[in-house]
Design a protein that fits this description.
Strand content: 25-35%
CATH architecture of the largest domain: Beta Barrel
Largest sheet: 6 strands, mixed, barrel
Helix content: 10-25%
Number of domains: 2
CATH superfamily of the largest domain: RlpA-like domain
Radius of gyration: 19 Å
Structural class: alpha+beta
Order of helices and strands: HEEEEEEEHEEHEEHE
Strand order of the largest sheet: 3-7-4-6-5-8
Shape: globular
């Protein structure tokens, strides 16, 4: 799931690097000890807010990696892998200084300004929710957003732990947000039958996960990468993409069926010296 509900507030206020606290180390996390009807929990309602006093430094560092806080959320849209966090962090302070409530419709993001409102869509079942980002994370390779327990239930992510999602920022200052929120039946608790899984509001489009090592305007450069790594990673291939009157030669591994396989291959790429690979969903 996730790492911890995070950095000391003084660090974010000062905007400098630090060593994360001891509870940053992943441990046991999970759903609440009692059943909760999340269908009665409303989505976050976007409204204009000032930036949080805490959680918006120019940059911060975790485990030697530097993250730069975005100056604006305008136009932000990204696909990637979501995770969720629950009772281990319930009642603890978030990076913004607010108390984490696993039953609220919130999320954590590494670089979006705090707070930011986002629409998150599960690309596997079509369910969507609107969340308020008020925390930093997840600091796990290949994850782009950490969902509260309630959000994960509504999106159908609790049982699987992760999901392919699209995250779109909502800017309330530009007028009323046009958000078509699609709720399926809340996902079952892990102990319940999978037959109660979310029913999509509309059939989702088929998507697949890839690890992309680079995109080159020169096919020769792409072929060089393929030559260097193709024997180690047999699924590596070149995928041309045409757009804006230009052809890009994308070097990819995949499609990959599971997040576990994505994580394993990403670790192997790091061991091979490939530092800029990223997960692509399309």
């Amino acid at each position: 799931m996730r790492r911890g509900a995070l950095l000391a507030l003084a660090v974010f206020a000062g905007g400098c690097s630090t060593t994360p606290p001891s509870d940053f180390i992943p441990g046991t996390d999970g759903p609440p000890d009692r059943h909760i009807d999340v269908s009665s929990i409303p989505d976050a309602k976007p409204r204009a807010e000032p930036l949080s006093r805490y959680g918006n430094p120019a940059f911060y560092e975790i485990n030697g990696q530097r993250y730069y806080t975005m100056a604006s959320n305008d136009g932000y849209r990204e696909r990637g892998i979501a995770s969720w966090y629950g009772k281990k962090f319930h009642g603890r302070r978030t990076s913004s200084g607010e108390i984490y409530d696993m039953f609220a419709m919130t999320a954590a993001h590494k670089t979006l300004p705090l707070p930011t409102y986002v629409e998150v869509t599960n690309l596997s079942n079509g369910a969507s929710v609107v969340l308020r980002v008020n925390d930093r994370g997840p600091f796990h390779q290949n994850r782009i957003i950490d969902l509260s327990y309630a959000a994960a239930r509504k999106l159908g992510v609790v049982a699987t732990g992760t999901a392919m999602v699209e995250v779109r920022a909502i800017n309330p200052s530009q007028g009323p947000a046009t958000v078509q929120v699609k709720h399926g039946t809340p996902a079952p608790e892990p102990a319940q039958s999978a037959s109660n899984a979310p029913t999509p509001a509309e059939p989702p489009q088929a998507v697949a996960m890839y690890i992309q090592l680079g995109a080159f305007s020169s096919r020769m450069n792409a072929e060089q990468v393929q030559s260097e790594l193709g024997d180690t990673f047999p699924m590596l291939h070149i995928s041309p993409s045409v757009g804006n009157e230009q052809t890009l030669y994308r070097v990819r591994i995949g499609p990959l069926p599971t997040v576990e396989q994505v994580d394993q291959l990403s670790s192997r790429l790091l061991e091979s010296g490939v530092l800029d690979a990223r997960v692509v969903i399309d």
